[in-house]
Design a protein that fits this description.
mainly alpha
Amino acid sequence: MRKVFWFWFLNLVILMIFLIRGGMHSKPCARKCIPSNAKRRQHEKSRSVFAAYMIGWGIFFVYFITVARRTSALREEIERLKNSLNRSK
């Protein structure tokens, strides 16, 4: 379960770096590429998509952590019950 967590965490970090750098365009565009107003609107849209993506991943990680805690608590409870059962025999 930890491997899955780290896989998705690294995926998220790589995506954040990709989006912060501005996608695939690491070099500035030529003047004729996109007018400045359209460029601003596109940047604002990408920011909102990035924010929604981050919120989604945040919810996923909180859910993942709560499930992991519940699972470990259940395992401890099962071990405790096994031990009490063995003592009573």
